[in-house]
Structure to design on (422 residues):
């Protein structure tokens, strides 16, 4: 289907020569979403990329070696540090994107990228990391920062309610939804009333590999330092248990987390992939206390043969179990501490070969084949638009009529448009 050839992909025939546009929320670092974008960047090296804001040098040559179109937010002083606080302005900024008349638009979205305006009849595939986190499942975490300011909290809550309505409304502009996990597939159905295909993100199993080294008595966190990642729980659990912890990552929570941490916690900030890999090869286990959409970092740890101790909720629970670490069910620091100590008391059970096999299911080559095959099916008309779900959760099925798609129940839809007709 596809293969690497001199660093570039050989595409399915139907994708060759297409005018493709890529859309991504923002480009400020190379995290899981950017690793997915890199695959599309290699597949479509000439495709322009639209994003809210871009920090030069932050995402690597595959993404940066193309035309990058930003929004008016790019010119806000200090935007790279403050963009999360400008969430209410993002819908208006996204409305400024002008994609022209492409043959295919692919958005990678956890915030506003899927709201890009696409000409009628042009397929818009949204690779959805999650519905807008701040307005839906991450709403309470976003509001926690205003806990001591009830009036501002109330005002922010009203803004998030309006963003939720906007997010649901703009989902109608997506013709095809792709979810990164069963967890996200359920959210897309619940939040947007849409069906979706599942294609899990890529794990670089050729880079993240085991090594013949002795594991050391410290735990590891690799994460953006933002509230919903719950790094505070890992710190509190390790401090209470008297265990060493290394934290790799950066974010607005760092200062507060450093104040919370004891002498056994070391903050390294963002580190190169080689440093992260070395720690995954040497740590006793990776701690992952947050509710994640899929969890590329835990899979990278498994690829290195590291155990993973995680919360038994969300996408991580779809790939991690007690054969390759330990899952806990209480979403608190105390729950994590008890799980950690119980795992140690049981002799730190873990099957590194099984961990490696789990990670290899999501190898980059497999992701390339599945995603590009799906896009080819969309362009060729073999993959119909994502269906709507009825109020009772039942599927609204489609019939093919000539070159278009007609809903079997209710009103219809045309190929290349996910918009629910009036």
């Amino acid at each position: 289907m596809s293969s690497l050839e001199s660093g570039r992909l050989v595409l399915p025939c139907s994708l060759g020569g297409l005018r493709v546009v890529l859309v991504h929320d923002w480009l400020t670092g190379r995290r899981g979403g950017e690793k997915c974008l890199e695959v599309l960047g290699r597949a479509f090296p000439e495709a322009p990329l639209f994003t809210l804001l871009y920090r030069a040098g932050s995402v690597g040559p595959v993404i940066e070696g193309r035309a990058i179109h930003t929004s008016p937010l790019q010119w806000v002083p200090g935007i790279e540090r403050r963009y999360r606080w400008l969430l209410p302005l993002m819908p208006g900024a996204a409305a400024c994107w002008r994609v022209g008349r492409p043959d295919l638009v692919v958005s990678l979205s956890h915030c506003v990228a899927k709201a890009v305006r696409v000409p009628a009849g042009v397929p818009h595939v949204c690779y959805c990391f999650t519905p807008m986190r701040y307005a839906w499942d991450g709403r309470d975490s976003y509001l926690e920062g205003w806990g001591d300011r009830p009036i501002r909290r109330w005002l922010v809550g009203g803004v998030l309610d309006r963003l939720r309505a906007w997010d649901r409304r703009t989902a109608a502009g997506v013709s095809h939804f792709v979810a990164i996990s069963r967890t996200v597939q359920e959210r897309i159905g619940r939040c947007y009333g849409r069906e979706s295909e599942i294609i899990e993100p890529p794990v670089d199993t050729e880079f993240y590999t085991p090594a013949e080294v002795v594991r050391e008595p410290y735990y590891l966190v690799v994460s953006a330092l933002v509230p919903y990642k719950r790094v505070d729980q890992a710190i509190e659990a390790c401090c209470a248990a008297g265990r060493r912890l290394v934290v790799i990552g950066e974010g607005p929570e760092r200062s507060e987390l450093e104040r919370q941490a004891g002498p056994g916690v070391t903050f390294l900030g963002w580190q190169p992939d080689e440093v992260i890999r070395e720690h995954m090869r040497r740590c006793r286990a990776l701690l992952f206390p947050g509710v994640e959409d899929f969890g590329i970092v835990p899979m990278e740890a498994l690829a290195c043969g590291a155990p993973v101790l995680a919360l038994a909720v969300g996408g991580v629970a779809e790939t991690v179990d007690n054969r390759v670490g330990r899952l806990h069910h209480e979403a608190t620091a105390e729950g994590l501490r008890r799980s950690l100590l119980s795992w140690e008391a049981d002799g730190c059970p873990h099957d590194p070969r099984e961990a490696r096999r789990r990670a290899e299911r999501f190898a980059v080559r497999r992701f390339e084949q599945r995603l590009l095959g799906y896009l080819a099916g969309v362009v060729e008309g073999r993959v119909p638009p994502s269906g709507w779900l009825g109020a009772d959760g039942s599927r609204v099925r489609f019939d093919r009529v000539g070159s278009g798609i007609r809903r079997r129940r209710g009103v219809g839809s045309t190929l290349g448009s996910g918009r629910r007709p009036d």
In short: The domain at 4-202+365-407 is CATH 3.40.50 (Rossmann fold). The chain has two domains: 4-202+365-407, 218-359. The CA atoms of residues 14 and 380 lie 7 Å apart.
